[in-house]
Amino acid sequence: MDFTLDRAMTEDELRAHLDSALTPALLMLTAHVTGDAGVLRTEWKPNRATLPASGLAPETDAEIRAFCLKRLAPYLSSQRDWAALPDDSLRESMCTWLMDENIEDAQALAAVAFTPDDSDPRGPEWNLDEIAPDSGLSAVVIGAGFSGLLAGLRLKQAGVPFTILEKSTNVGGTWYENSYPDCRTDVRSHIYTYSFVPHDWVTHFGRQQAIHEYLYNFAAKNGLLEHISFGTEVTATRWDESTSTWTIDTRTSDGVVGSAEAQIVVSAVGQLNRPMIPAVDGLDTFTGPVMHSAQWDHSIDFAGKRVVVIGTGASALQFAPAVAKEAEHVTIFQRSAPWLRSTPVLRQEIDPGERRLLTNLKHYRAYYRFSIFLPRLIGNLPAATVDPDFPPTEVSVSAANEALRVELTDYLTEQAGDRLDLLEQIMPDYPPAAKRIICDDGTWVATLKRDNVRLVSQAVQRIDKDGVWIGDEHVPADIILFGTGFKASEFLVPMTVTGIGGQDLHQTWGIDASAYLGITLPGYPNFFCMYGPNTNTVIHGNLVFFLECQAAYIISAVQMLAKGGHRSMALRPDVFTEYTDEVTKESAKRTWGWSKTHSWYQNAAGRSTIMWPLPARQYFERTSAVHGEDYHIH
Ligand code: NAP
Description:
Bound molecules: NADP nicotinamide-adenine-dinucleotide phosphate
CATH topology of the largest domain: FAD/NAD(P)-binding domain
Largest sheet: 5 strands, parallel
Number of strands: 21
Number of domains: 3
Structural class: alpha/beta
CATH architecture of the largest domain: 3-Layer(bba) Sandwich
Distance between the termini: 46 Å
CATH superfamily of the largest domain: FAD/NAD(P)-binding domain
Helix content: 25-40%
Strand order of the largest sheet: 3-2-1-7-19
CATH class of the largest domain: Alpha Beta
Radius of gyration: 25 Å
C-alpha cells in the first residue's frame, strides 16, 4: 500500500486516538508546532531504553497527552502550513532532551535523523543532461535488493543511463530469498525503511513479505522495474584501460551468456546471500530433506516429523519456534548461545490508533521515527569497546560492557525461571556484542521449554542416513534444517572482478576484503560497492542509513567524473592502506574484533571485515563528500 498523508487530523480525531500517542513524539511535535522548546520538560524526558515509548508512569503519559492536545488544538486546522523543519535551536533542544550522552554526535546527526514526509534532502541535485550531456557515462548496478534499488533510483534521478542486473526473478535480494516461517527484521520497521519513503507499517518489526512488498512498490513506483534485467547473473567484470569501460559478463537462468558495457559498476550484491552449510560428517548420506533457512521449501510438511535444527542465530530463532509448533519433535544443536534483548513488541502489530496518528497527524511519524532513529544511530558503542584497564575477558570487556552483560543476563535468568538446567545452557560464554544480540519477546525460551523440543549444547558431529549422533546416542530425524548463516566474509563471490593490469579482486583481497568506506578500492576504477566490507552495524548505526550514505557518496563521485569531463577515478593506494589500517586497529578494540567466539563478523584470519567500528557519525561525515585528492582521476 502506498503511503499517503491527508495531514488533516481534526481535534476530535486526535482526542479519539490520543491514548495511542507515544508521548516523546507527541511532545517534540508540540514543540515544533508551537515553537516552544519549554514543553520538553526534564520530568517528561523519555527513558532511552523504552523509546519510542516514554517509559514514564501511565499517569504521567496521560498528563502529557492532555497537555499536548490542549497546546496543539489551535494549530490543527492549519496542519498543511506547518513548517517542514524545526529551527536549529529547537532541534538542538530536542537532541539534548532525547539523548543522555553523545550529545555532540547526536547534534551532528539530527538533521539527517529528522525526515519529514515528502523530503529527500540527499537525492542528487544535478542531472547529467545539464552538466555533461556528451559524457557518454552509463552504469550497471549488480543486484536489485535494498542497496541496488537505491543506487538505481539515485542514478535515475541524476539522469545517468543504467541497467540493474539481478540473478533472481524478483527484486528484494535477501528479503525475497529468505521466506522461512516467521522471517522478519529485528530492526524497527520505521527505521528499516528508506528515510524518504515512509510506509504505513502494520507491525513494529516488518515481516519478510511486507518488506518485500515495500521494496517491490518502491521499484515499481519509481520506474525502476523497466531498468532491471531479471534472471541475469553477473559472472565476471573486466576493466578495459584503453576505453575506461567495464565489460560485464552475464549468464541467464537458462544458461544464455551475454555481456554489457558501462563506465561505472555499482556492486550491490549484499553480504547475506550465499548460504553456509557446514561440512558435517555423513550429511550426504541423510535420506530426508535438508534445507537451509535461505532456501526454504514450503512444500515440506512438518506435522508428525522429527526435525533437527542446526544453529541458533537470528534466522533459527525465528523459524525454529514456528517449526516446533508443527513438528512431532525438534532437536536443536547450539554451538554458542545467543545473547537476547527483551523486545516485547517483536511480533506485535502496531496499535490501529497509533497507525492513524502516524499516517494522519503531520510530522507525528517524523518525530516517532526520530525518537527511534537518533538513539539507534548513536547506539551504545562504549558497551562494545574494550577497556584495556578493565581488564577485558571473555566474560566482559569494559565496565559498560559488563553493565550490558548484567542487563542481558537478568533477562535470560527471568526467561529460564525455575529451569536452572536450561539457564546454564542458554547463558552465553562470550561478551555481549561480540556478535548480533537477538531481539526476543519470550518466544525462544518458551520454545526451548516445550515438551517436544530438546536443546543440545554442541555442534553436530555426525549424521547418518536417518538421524544425527550425539556422542554414542543416535537421534532419529526426518528433516534437517540449517540455520547456519552465510559466507558473509567472501565478498562479491562467485563473480570475478578484473581491474587495472589484469589484477583479480579476489586475489588482491585473499580472505581480507577491504574497501575505502566499504565503497572503493585501488586498481578498480569506477567500481563502487554498496554494503561492502566493514559497513555492517551491531550496536550502533543503521543499515539503511549506511546504504543511503553509500548511495550519496557514489552519486557524488559520478557527478565529479561527469562535471570534470573525466573517464575514470581510482582510489589512491596510500588512502586505502591508511584507511584499512585504521579500521583494523579500531575493530580490534570492539568486542566483535576482540572476542575469540565464533562469529560471521570475523573472517578465517580473525579480522573483522564486516562491521563498521567507529561512531555512525564518522561514517556519515566521511561519506558526505568525495574528496578528489583521494583518487587518481583521468
Ligand atoms: P548466523 O547469525 O551466522 O548464525 C548461524 C548459527 O549457526 C550460529 O548459531 C552458529 O553458531 C551456527 N553454526 C554455524 N556454523 C556451524 C557449524 N559448523 N556447526 C554448528 N553450528 C554452526 O546466521 P543467521 O541466523 O542466518 O543470521 C545471519 C545474519 O542475518 C544475522 O546476524 C542478521 O544480521 C541477519 N538476520 C537478521 C534477521 C532479523 O532481522 N531478524 C533474521 C535473520 C538473519 P556460532 O554462534 O557458534 O557461530
